[in-house]
Amino acid sequence: MKLLTKSKYLAGLQCPKYLWVQYHDRDRIPEPGAMAKHLFKEGDKVGEMAKKLYPEGIDISFDSFKENLTKSKELLKEGKPLFEPGYIHENCFSRADVLVPVGDEWDIVEVKSGTKVKDVNVHDVSFQKYVYEGAGLKIRNCYLMHLNTEYVRDGDLDVEKLFKLRDITEKVEEFSKGLEDRIEVMLDVISADKDPRQDIGAHCKSPYACPLTECWDHLEDNHVFKLYMGGAKSQSLYESGVHAIKDIPDAFKLTDKQDIQRECEKTGKEFVSKGDLKHFLKDLNYPLYYLDFETFNTAVPMFDGLSPHQQVPFQYSLHVVKEEGSKPEHYEFLYRGSSDPRKEFLDSLKGVIGSSGDIVVYHAPFEKSILKKVGNYFGEEEWVSEVNSRIVDLLIPFRNFHYYNSKQQGSASIKKVLPALVGKDYSGLGIQEGAAANTEFMRVTYSESEDKEKVYADLLEYCELDTKAMVWIVDKLREKVV
Ligand code: SF4
To answer: Ligand 1 centroid to 37 CA: how many Å?
Structure first.
């Protein structure tokens, strides 16, 4: 009999088909991407850090399955915290991050690299509690230990302050209702010969983006789930048999932006709101500084002045266009040391960003918040405030659908807008998206690697294209309004 583990229980809550595939046909599940792998590693680091809070704790996480089960039973007598003890009850198997003894009872402590309690965490602990109680342990309270966003590193890590311990005992009780029935259904799914029929829907993205993308293959590119902020509307259209945006009946009420999407699909033409675009372009003040950052973040702050998951800028690309139609000048920075990149990044940017003219970025809140945090830490509040006041967001005309082209597939991201509007893309680059940029930078910068120079060259090429893309986009928009 196959055992139901807590991660599989969570998979089963999301989707029975995903659960079945995990047991019977794992090859169908694509390899996790760069960001997912980074997050797994960060989760492991956080788990190791949390163990420091229980100096008496006994770690059995590295033992084999059999040994773990045997030791977990034996060690209960010791009356000490246990890291990852495993227990079985009724075909269910679970390992707690930490079991803490309290007299003859135990507290469950689940450690997460997130910064708040999520429903999926409570389901996770509910399953654990069910297994441990079934195995004969008396559980007193349940806790979630997550990262504390208010913590700012100053010198050695203060592990006490790095975490917040949240009592979720009552929530666990609530989420435990119906748990046995759910487990029974899941055990039936696991023992079936075929995967259960399961259609796509909102559950494919929540609580996690399901990696089994094959379920979406029957849809054409511009399907109803690509409707901008489609939500329940997309779902109801799909369930009523309308799968493509072009097939949405004219009488079906859509928002203005969704209506533009439908119109573009039906006519095959792009949408251009000349008045709005002219307004946006007219307001641009030369010289224009097209700016883009690359950043990384870690769950446990690496350097002083950082909080958990705070973004650390390590690279920028800047194209400066002195006046309309003039050739862009390119400037760039990539940190090449092995410590904190922020000061060098800031000093370099100060040298090239000028004191007048708009700074064009794509998704301004991100760039502004990075600059603000770095500036505050290094005593450059005034400079940052002046720089941030010059920032213009090139995302806005696209998010407002002042330009739309069906090749964007409902998205205003630069990765979609560039090929749709300009006909160029990121294919052929060694690094093609932000997640790969930050994980690759971290890999070659903070560990030994032979391909460091190759990765740095790829990073420079990638970031340069981000700002070149903005120059091209603005040029194209100008053509559209003539
Ligand atoms: S993509 Fe959706 S339907 Fe397919 S297995 Fe995942 S959650 Fe289930």
So the answer is: 20
20-48 pLDDT, tens digit per residue, is 999 999 999 999 888 888 889 999 999 99
- DSSP states of 378-426: TT-HHHHHHHHHTEEETHHHHHTTSEE-GGGTT--SHHHHIIIIIS--S
pLDDT > 70 in the chain, percent: 100
| Under 8 Å between Cβ of 268 and 413 | no
User: Where residue 414 falls among pLDDT bands split at 50, 70, 90?
Assistant: very high
Strands 86-89 and 92-95: antiparallel
Tens digits of residue pLDDT in 348-400:
999 999 999 999 999 999 999 999 999 999 999 999 999 999 999 999 999 99
Domains of the chain: residue spans and CATH:
4-191 (3.90.320.10), 221-268 (no CATH), 277-481 (3.30.420.10)
**What is the C-alpha R_g of the chain?**
26
- Residue from 195, 197, 210, 216 whose mutation best tests the ligand 1 pocket (most atoms within 8 A of CB): 210
Q: Which amino acid is at 440?
A: E
